[in-house]
Specification:
Keywords: Flavoprotein, Oxidoreductase
Strand content: 15-25%
Number of helices: 9
Shape: elongated
Pfam family, one: Pyr_redox_2
CATH architecture of the largest domain: 3-Layer(bba) Sandwich
Catalytic activity: [thioredoxin]-dithiol + NADP(+) = [thioredoxin]-disulfide + NADPH + H(+)
Distance between the termini: 57 Å
Order of helices and strands: HEHEHEEEEEEHEHEHEEEEEEHEEEHH
Helix content: 25-40%
CATH class of the largest domain: Alpha Beta
GO molecular function: thioredoxin-disulfide reductase (NADPH) activity
CATH topology of the largest domain: FAD/NAD(P)-binding domain
Largest sheet: 7 strands, mixed
Protein name: NAD(P)/FAD-dependent oxidoreductase
Length: 409
């Protein structure tokens, strides 16, 4: 398997119809209605204002020495990026692909620690079911670089707001600034401290029924329940197997009604504590219990605790919200945080997001971010036009046309 972190990934040509991370150039498809609406509104606003400004300027100031080029924004300096993305997993690379294809200067910092790197295969990803998570990252690297996105393998250790955007500092001492920031650092899974559990993580020990339930069909399933969520996971697994045991010691006292419901559905409960994972030939064969006996188990669904890798967001002081997983970064529907110009996507803001959900969140944030940049650039051009004709008789006529009214009226 080719490593996604090789020194250089060669560019490959892209055909004209692209939009999907890891599926670029493979098929044409209609865009989502929300995306079409967002793009249409943005395009309509820009076209309407520029057309009306052009008409006014041409009719009232035909003798003006201003040329069309004088109304254009100066290029962003090489020292500043349009967007810096912290994190190079499905969410971060999806955002990078959208923005790079929008001809934005995009810089991705990737610490090379995707949450699902322990798994040999990922599931529930359309056209990539059973694909290696690291191969998905390798594909993403190649696709982002093919459209001039820049990816650096480094960990961001400091994040600051500046007068013109944001500055980040990496563990290698590099500094970079950008107009906008997307944080896609994800989270890590904290497993119960049971000997042998971590060694099987991503293979015989998994967490997600949607990701690994189908592959567990007909097998002896053990569920390490640490809370009521673990009990719910056991219920989710009943379509896959009739041999399910919930190990309850980590969850504390289980209400009688919950016990009765589990038993009614054919799920066994085991109150003895699990002390070790037993393997043979690299595969799980059972779980050792505190009285020395062994429960015969083929696969373990553990209740891992997600730990947010959100230090960049904490440094910026974003607002947080309480979730079943604890305190998490608060975002709107597009992933925008309480700090202007900052988005948090994927597992950074949604700890239970699967790969396609994380990728979609990255794309959604990228669309919103680019729309903001377009609006900002139109506002700058508008201000320049008003400045050019400030004090003239036409200023009064131009001002209403160049207002921030979204309708342009």
């Amino acid at each position: 398997m080719r490593s996604p972190w090789s020194p250089k990934v060669q560019r490959e040509s892209c055909c004209a119809s692209h939009a999907s991370f890891s599926g670029a150039g493979r098929s044409r498809s209609k865009s989502h209605p929300a995306c079409r609406s967002l793009l249409a509104n943005s395009a309509s606003l820009v076209a309407n204002k520029l057309a009306r400004v052009h008409d006014c300027v041409m009719t009232r100031h035909e003798d003006s020495s201003a040329t069309p080029d004088s109304l254009l924004d100066a290029s962003i300096s090489p020292e500043q990026w349009d967007a810096i993305i912290i994190g190079g997993g499905a969410a971060g690379l999806s955002a990078a692909l959208i923005l790079a294809r929008a001809r934005r200067r995009v810089l991705v910092f990737d610490a090379q620690e995707p949450r699902n790197r322990f798994a040999a295969h990922m599931h529930g990803v359309l056209s990539r079911d059973g694909y290696s998570p690291l191969d998905l990252v390798a594909d993403g690297y190649r696709e982002v670089r093919a459209v001039d996105g820049v990816i650096e393998n480094a960990r961001v250790i400091e994040t600051h707001a500046t007068a013109n955007g944001f500055e980040v500092v990496t563990d290698k001492g590099a500094r970079a600034t950008a107009r906008r920031l997307i944080v896609a650092t994800g989270n890590r899974d904290q497993l119960p401290a049971i000997p042998g559990l971590a060694e099987q993580w991503g293979r015989g020990v998994v967490a997600c029924p949607y990701c690994d339930g189908y592959e567990s069909s007909g097998r002896a399933i053990g569920v390490l329940a640490g809370s009521v969520m673990g009990l719910h996971k056991a219920h989710m697994l009943t379509p896959y197997s009739t041999d399910i045991t919930v190990f309850t010691a980590l969850a504390g006292a289980i209400p009688d009604v919950d016990r009765l419901v589990l038993e009614q559905r054919g799920i066994r409960l085991e109150d003895r504590a699990v002390t070790r994972v037993i393997t043979e030939g690299g595969a799980i064969t059972g779980l050792g219990l505190d009285d020395g006996t062994v429960a015969l188990i083929d696969v373990v669904f553990a209740e891992a605790t997600p730990i947010a890798l959100d230090e960049p967001l904490r440094q910026l002081g974003v607002e947080r919200t309480d979730t079943p997983f604890g305190s998490w970064t608060a975002v709107d529907a597009a992933g925008k945080t309480s700090v202007e110009g900052v988005w948090a996507v994927g597992n950074t803001s949604n700890p239970s997001a699967l790969v396609p959900i994380a990728a979609g969140a990255g794309a959604t944030a990228a669309l919103a971010l680019n729309a903001e940049l377009v609006a900002e650039e139109v506002a700058t051009a508008t201000e320049r036009v008003l400045t050019m004709f400030s004090g003239s008789a036409s200023h009064t006529a131009l001002a209403p046309l160049l207002s921030t009214n979204p309708t342009g009226n």
